[in-house]
Amino acid sequence: MIAAALLLAAVAPVLAASNTDAVSVCQHLHTAYPQYTVWDPTGTYGLETFWNQSYYSNAVKEYWNGVNADNRPACAFFPATAQQVSVAVQQLNKYPTAPFALKGGGHNFNVGFSSTNGGVLISFNENMSSTTRNSDGQSFDIGPGARWGDVYAVTQKTNQVVGLACDNVVNFEVVLGNGTIINANSDSNPDLWWALRGGGNRFGIVTKFTLKAHPLGDNGQVWGGIRSYSADKREQIFEALSKFTSEYPDAKAAIIPTFEIGLPGALISNPAIFFFYDGAKPSANAFAGLEDIEPFTDSTNTTSYTNITNAAGGAKIYGINAAIHVNTFPNMPSQQMTQLLETHWTTYQSMIKNDSSRNLDLQLGTFTPQPLSVRIARASQNAGGNALGLDPANGDRIWVENDLIWLNPACNDACPGYLHEVGDTVKEAFNNTLLGTKPTNYQSGDVDWISSNPLFMNDAANYQDVYGSYGPTNKARLASIAKAYDPTGFMFRQGGWSF
Ligand SMILES: Cc1cc2nc3c(=O)[nH]c(=O)nc-3n(C[C@H](O)[C@H](O)[C@H](O)COP(=O)(O)OP(=O)(O)OC[C@H]3O[C@@H](n4cnc5c(N)ncnc54)[C@H](O)[C@@H]3O)c2cc1C
């Protein structure tokens, strides 16, 4: 046994420097919940939970951004109930220097947001990931560790689906920074309910989401899949994207366009569009002409929702080295939109390349323009609004997600900065040539401000000012709600953005 532990210690990628307060918290959790707490197998107490060390190893390894896996918590705790989370919070309060991290699916791009080196990892996927239909049939209770594929497998049994966006959360069950368990909804703690919809991890630990149910497709049948295109089709796609975002002909239609530029010399440069229609067959012109552009591969068909989400990347992929950066732009008429997106294309072509000085070897850069139409802002307002403060009068915008993935871990430090340069280069080009162009469907608002804000938290890098992008009023409101519900700043002991 001891020899095995020594061997493990020898091959561990990073020896965790466990925080002594974190060790004290782990000791308590291990005593109270021995079946739900696993020590770092390479640490001092590793032998105590040697028999179930695979739970620890998997929790530490299963991050989409593999750079997180270098972080080794002192122990991993896999709670099964809100009460157990509350006990962990109370213990963490007794040991104020113990860092901690909350892990749902481990899909956030930013290193250290859902991982911790030497702290306490509270991981929800293992024991708090169930999906249950409520008796009224109008909503589902979902655990904080659930993955969408598992959620849809349940909801599609009754030809239902739950809204993806924060606007569809009817109730959050939350463990506050002092261990109290409360609910946040439109009647109880409505300010916390508002803050949790778009405000991130600074308010409390969510132990259950109740999400509104919607009917799904035609008796559960939906249409969609991925089409990829030769590079010369990009201009047609840019133009149609502008039209799709401004006209949004059919609320049942959705797209995720991705432009990939990769390998030395940008040899692979292809647009691809993920199409989705919430019905067995799209209505005429549902995609504003995007559907008429000739692809060279096409997997669109009529199928089930889980098949579609799997096609969009539902598979569990771990260990990619990755960085992200998001920019907000106005959606503009076709000509200006083409200019902006062509600037992205050429910037990626010139900047995503072999560069030995940056330790870039095999790399893939992608940019993904995501329509933020006034339709979405209207739906958000109708559902009570959220922390992003979307106003339909501001017109249509797009979020452009920029990603870089690479193989060589020697680039783990420099590569995120490299993508940052790419994101800033396109933003600067926009500011120099197109700033002041009114968004389509614009009615009112400061054009310069709405042309760069808000940023989409799920696509934002750790150095981006997400809360500032919600505007000074919303940022101040978020800060005061955090102070009211978490006066000691407990939630700030983990990674995340600051006010
Ligand atoms: C390939 C890929 C595609 C993506 N596509 C999309 C997309 O189409 N749309 C989209 O919106 N996003 C997308 N994202 C972004 C992703 O949805 C977000 O990063 C999201 O945070 C991931 O959720 P998670 O549970 O896996 O997060 P984790 O990495 O586990 O955690 C993320 C954050 O949530 C906090 N957190 C975790 N659990 C709790 C809890 N119980 N209570 C309070 N805070 C908690 C953590 O502190 C952390 O800051 C994509 C990401 C990847 C890698």
UniProtKB/TrEMBL annotation:
InterPro entries xref list: FAD-bd_PCMH, FAD-bd_PCMH-like_sf, FAD-bd_PCMH_sub2, FAD-linked_Oxidoreductase, Oxid_FAD_bind_N
Span of the signal peptide: 1-16
Source species, domain of life: Eukaryota
Keyword Membrane listed: no
Domain FAD-binding PCMH-type: 69-251
Short name of one Pfam family: FAD_binding_4
A GO MF term: FAD binding
Gene3D superfamilies: 3.30.465.10, 3.40.462.20
Keywords, ordered alphabetically: FAD, Flavoprotein, Oxidoreductase, Signal
Family: Belongs to the oxygen-dependent FAD-linked oxidoreductase family.
Name under which the protein is recorded: FAD dependent oxidoreductase
Native organism taxonomy: Eukaryota, Fungi, Dikarya, Ascomycota, Pezizomycotina
